[in-house]
Design brief:
174 residues; 6-stranded antiparallel β-sheet; 4-stranded antiparallel β-sheet; 28% strand; binds FE2/S2 (inorganic) cluster
Length: 174
């Protein structure tokens, strides 16, 4: 009987799964394209779910008035970042535009949620991520990719203190 040393050395699991190492690590163009299709399909599905969720369950309006700071804490041209406890930790930006004129906007850009900031030199709110610009008075989009204005809050000054509440156009102090 002839002795076959190669057959003797090959373990059983290799006989059951006869895949060569270089074949196992090779990814064909077709497999890669399939992977990309699945990945982009998954991302599209995720975006669709987020869009449906935001239409089906719109965020609840802010209730009541909330104290933010004293008027002396934020000089003209300066800003203060704040969140309101229990409001899903949405970051807001309080802006002291001019004497007696205050604004408060969500700090998340309506494009891809980067943090916006107020640029006092040009009196605009800007998003550093993709050069989006918003009107510092109204929050409307002036330039760049943001699709919607910045959501804003109404600002009230009482006894040298700054309060915010859900946005009502008539309540905004100008
Ligand atoms: S995230 Fe603000 S412009 Fe893109």
């Amino acid at each position: 009987m002839a002795y076959n040393s190669k057959e003797k050395e090959t373990p059983n699991w290799k006989k059951d799964f006869p895949v060569k190492k270089d074949e196992a690590t090779h990814v064909s163009r077709r497999e890669f394209a399939k992977f990309l299709c699945l990945l982009s399909g998954g991302m599209a599905l995720g975006n669709g779910i987020i869009a449906i969720k935001s239409f089906a369950f719109p965020s609840k309006e802010l209730e009541g008035e909330h104290f933010i700071c004293n008027t002396s804490d934020v000089a003209i041209g300066q800003t203060k970042e704040f969140i309101i406890e229990g409001e899903k930790n949405i970051p807001y930006l309080l802006i002291h535009l001019s004497e007696g004129k205050w604004r408060a906007f969500e700090q998340k850009c309506t494009h891809l949620s980067c943090a916006v900031r107020y640029n006092a030199e040009i009196n605009k709110i800007e998003c550093p991520c993709h050069k989006g610009f918003f009107d510092a008075d109204t929050g409307t989009v002036l330039a760049g990719p943001p699709p919607r204005p910045l959501p804003q809050l109404s600002v009230h000054i009482k006894n040298e203190k700054v309060y915010v509440s859900a946005y009502k156009e008539s309540k905004t102090i100008s």
